[in-house]
Amino acid sequence: MPNIAHTYYPQQGLLVVLGAGESGVGAAVLGKEKGFEVFVSDRGAIGESYRKELESEGIVFEELQHTESKILKADIVVKSPGIPEQAPLVQQLKKMGIPVISEIEFAAQYTEARLYCITGSNGKSTTTMLTYYMLKQGGVNVGLAGNIGKSFARQVARSDFDVYVLEISSFMLDDMYRFRADIAVILNITPDHLDRYNHSMEAYVASKFRIIQNQTENDYFIYCADDPETAKGLERFATKALHLPFSQQDEVAAGAYLDSNRNIVINIPNKETFTMNIEELSLQGKHNVYNNMASGLIAKAQELRNQTMKESMGSYVNIAHRLEHVACIGGVNYINDSKATNVNSVWYALESFSPDIILIMGGVDKGNDYEMLRDLVKAKVKAIVCIGKDTVRIHESFEEDTDVIVNSSSMQEAVEMASHLAKKGDTVLLSPACASFDWFRNYEERGDKFKEAVMAL
């Protein structure tokens, strides 16, 4: 059965898509296929490949503006997750009673595939990719979408998968109302994007918990029992789904936990128990034990064989820009963690490596509170090399916790400085804690420039 009743949203008429990135163009392609008149509007410039695709599909579009007279005639609007709820145009559409939904919500109407949905402040991409890899290794006809890869809508239009693993951000969840996840996962909730939520942690937690809305007793809800914000959220938000907590602190009857021999134990009612020692995992570090627990619970719910799970969890190679090993030069390891755009991600990165670390960090500060990093910086970081425009708060936060803090004027200079500060056995870690938009287009370009600079040493 489809995850949203087909008749809930208009099934014909004018579909307006706001934003012509991967999700917007995917929604436009699916809308055209389902018989809508489609109009795509982007306030910015549309990328060359997306413009060509819209032209070849015969889809009407505009860029560098929003023509309100046309947009306000919509029967339904699919909005890019980057456009905030508070935008005047969005407010106007809602006032007129025109449904404004996410691409995920729109596409879910047109598939009967099972949807395994993963959210969290940190670890989403790794857990999503690991889950996808594991299911694929197990012979499942599985697609990968959401905040990663090709858009969900495009795949619903062009492919025929039995299962989708979806990485879901809070911005996507904000525009999802009738969507139902067969398996919903909340990995953790730490302060991030609070500027989008009126600086209210409660509002951000509520957004994350939208992932469990509409779940039934036949569905699964997987979450970290050790995460304080998730624990508080459980008191506010209920679901009929079977709860499967995972924990490294306590044994759980149904779910996943770490036993006294450092084995991950996964127990789901009426399914074979799974155990694997954490030393055998390809992804090391405390945070990756959590990621493997979450992925393992999904795989076990899907009834994958224990042997397949073990082989997958032992052989998976991490995604680019997330604790990615770049090179070992002169006995110094260089690690690209450019995807670490918040403080909590940097905490996980520092926790993963032994002393001594030369930490490259900085960029566009999103109102970061660096306090949670101080103990790890004291214990593990011998020097900090700052990149980007917002360096004052990094200096203020860590001047008493590490011997050296220096500024750089480019990524190349930052890497050269770090290489001079490092000696054999050290780790040079790019883990910025900040957005990248001052020096780079995105975190991928930042990570690529880091890798180029390392290989030029």
Automatic annotation (TrEMBL):
Pathway in which the depicted protein is active: Cell wall biogenesis; peptidoglycan biosynthesis
Molecular function as annotated in GO: ATP binding; UDP-N-acetylmuramoylalanine-D-glutamate ligase activity
EC numbers: 6.3.2.9
Presence of the UniProt keyword Cell cycle in the record: yes
One of the record's GO cellular component terms: cytoplasm
InterPro entries: Mur-like_cat_sf (IPR036565), Mur_ligase_C (IPR004101), Mur_ligase_C_dom_sf (IPR036615), Mur_ligase_cen (IPR013221), MurD (IPR005762)
Domain Mur ligase central: 118-297
Subcellular localization: Cytoplasm
Cell division keyword on record: yes
Keywords (A to Z) from UniProt: ATP-binding, Cell cycle, Cell division, Cell shape, Cell wall biogenesis/degradation, Cytoplasm, Ligase, Nucleotide-binding, Peptidoglycan synthesis
Pfam families: Mur_ligase_C, Mur_ligase_M, MurD-like_N
Similarity annotation: Belongs to the MurCDEF family.
Protein name per its UniProtKB record: UDP-N-acetylmuramoylalanine--D-glutamate ligase
Source organism of the structure: Sphingobacterium allocomposti
